[in-house]
Amino acid sequence: MQPEFLKQTIMAKKFLLVFGLFMATMVCSASITPVDFQTGYVNPNDAKTTHRPKSPMRPPVVYIEDYTLSFVADHPDYELTILDEDGNVVYMTMVESAQTEVILPSVLSGDYYVELVMGNWLFTGLIEL
Questions:
Q1: How far is CA 57 from CA 37, 39, 52, 105, in A?
Q2: Do 72 and 100 belong to one domain?
Q3: 14 and 51 share a domain?
Q4: Cβ contacts of residue 57 below 8 Å, gap of 6+?
Q5: How many domains does the chain have?
Q6: What is the pLDDT of residue 88?
Q7: How many CB atoms lie within 10 A of CB 94?
Q8: Do 58 and 11 lie in a common domain?
Q9: pLDDT tens digits along 86-99
Q10: What is the pLDDT of residue 73?
Q11: 64 and 109: one domain?
């Protein structure tokens, strides 16, 4: 006969093993992908006449999972535009600083360009829906 604490230890180890396998399956099946942004200007002529920062502008941190764009908390306001491969606007909205998610229309399918505008800064990335 095993002592009671030994039985509890074995059960705790079994639980941790099953929980670990469950979490590994969830992480592997998740399709959360960071969006890689290129940084530019909306109007390059305005950028030449205004003060340039000493360090380059850091692109926003945005992730995509299915049709949901996730933003880090406490980001600046952005104008979000989704363009098809021909450059046609298929979706446009404002992303307020308190917003952490934007759900894109589920009718979209394929590769799209994502543009985030903040003042004269333009961040462009590519997503697949």
A1: 11, 7, 10, 29
A2: yes
A3: no
A4: 39, 121
A5: 2
A6: 97
A7: 11
A8: no
A9: 999 999 999 999 99
A10: 86
A11: yes
Per the CB < 8 A criterion, the answer to whether 70 and 100 are in contact is yes
Integer angstrom CA distances of residue 46 from 38, 101, 119: 19, 31, 11
| Amino acid in the structure at residue 12 | A
Q: How far is CA 100 from CA 8, 57, 75, 87, in A?
A: 42, 21, 9, 26
Q: What is the pLDDT of residue 29?
A: 47
Q: Is 104 exposed, middle or buried (0-12, 13-18, 19+ CB in 10 A)?
A: buried
Whole-angstrom CA distances from 110 to 24, 34, 37, 68, 126 are: 29, 17, 18, 15, 11
Q: What is the mean pLDDT of residues 11-27?
A: 61
Residue 41: predicted pLDDT? 86
Whether 49 and 19 share a structural domain: no
Q: Is pLDDT above 60 for 1? A: no
Amino acid in the structure at residue 9: T
Quote the pTM value: 0.71
